[in-house]
Amino acid sequence: MAKVKTSEIRSIIEVLRRAYPDADCALEFQDPFQLLVSVVLSAQTTDKSVNQITPILFSRFPDATALAEADPVEVEGILRRIGMYRTKAKNIIELSSILSKKFGGQVPEQYETLLSLPGVGRKTANVVLAVGFGVPRIAVDTHVFRLSNRIGLTEESDVTKTEEALMTAIPVADWIMMHHSLILHGRSICSARNPKCQNCVLLPWCRRNGLEPMNTKNTTTKAIEIGDLKLGSGTVKICIPLVATTEMELWKEVEAVKAATPDLVEWRADLCFSKEPLELLRILKDLRGKMQQTPLLFTYRSKREGGEGSLSESDYMDLVSSVIRSKLVDLVDVEYSCAEERIRILLQESASNGIISVLSSHRLTGTPSQRKMEAILEHMLTYGADLPKLAVMAVEDDDVLRLLAASERIWKKHGMPPLITISMGDKGRLSRIAGGQFGSCVTFAAGNDPSAPGQIRIEQLRNALSILSL
Ligand code: SF4
Predict the structure, then answer these.
(1) How far is CA 59 from CA 4, 31, 43, 105, 264, in A?
(2) Which atom belonging to ligand 1 lies closest to the Cα atom of 201?
(3) Which of the residues in the chain have pLDDT under 50?
């Protein structure tokens, strides 16, 4: 088995925290006693099944004293729908009796004492301590055991060693969250027989121990399809950025842009009057409604990449992640200047949510050498983004030619996925018209106002493209 590195564990924790922000115990209970009984009943049984019978059980026997004096036949009758109901009925009556006689009907908070109760093993004791009393513990059930070893968090063959290894590998503050998240992930994505690795947010880090190797060859041989729109097939597609700074202007701009019928629309959220992520999401929801079927690209361009966005990198990441999970957009821009692990997390979240990722890099002061631009595009491709985008500033007359040459070389070498390559500024305009012949599948046109230097108005761009028949 292969293990993940310490730095990768940090990413895994972060990704799971984002994927399951409300991760919690699925059992329904009112107090530590009901929790303890519910966890004992959940052995070899789903939480859902337990939740169906515990309301009846606890309405008849609400506390340890009542359950200690219960008729075993009646308790068995209530538990009859879950597995091993006779043994479980016996155990919960006996443990209630002990709690009633020795602990005043209360559940003890000591691990060893819990373990001495009938039907209580390590997992049950850990869940009761973590969920009932907030004591940091990692309970290893079948999901936690399977995922820990598959992912490579641990490489142990038994539950006890897995628990110890997890407590060593994971920071104490994350023990409870990781326990719940791994269970939810095991139930929804990483099942025992059919793990959905292609849709898994942990794929970039997971060692997939014990599973058949995946086909890692880039199998993207088709155009990127968004409804009827095919990027990388046929003519270069025209995208108009929405650049309004007030909400009223934005809705006017939307109507004007829709009338111009671009192939897709980009919302430059960094230019918006509001800097509050929640407000941006509210506007995005309205924008999605107004754009109807027109494919929508969300971009929050930071100052370091030439935009107006002033969010810190972690706040930027939270915003983009929220946009991805909202599924209100078709494409999302992820900035190449972010930390590598953050890029990987956002790209994986995009893939898991069916959103096309545009990994973008902007060189604002000039055009690097052709070799350097090819290296940037090659490196972007290693991230597995759907659309690598490189925009450079044309300063010298031949800068645009170098950009087009780099674009064509990478495009011909890899074929798919398609690229977006732009030479900005007046001297780079050729790339906005002829880029399609050199592998760029999208060109940005100005609607009301340009969002970048050198953008051509959509009517003029359409004419130029039709003359070139691109
Ligand atoms: S990548 Fe596959 S094996 Fe790994 S956690 Fe995800 S679903 Fe499970």
Answers:
(1) 47, 13, 22, 17, 58
(2) 6
(3) 216-221
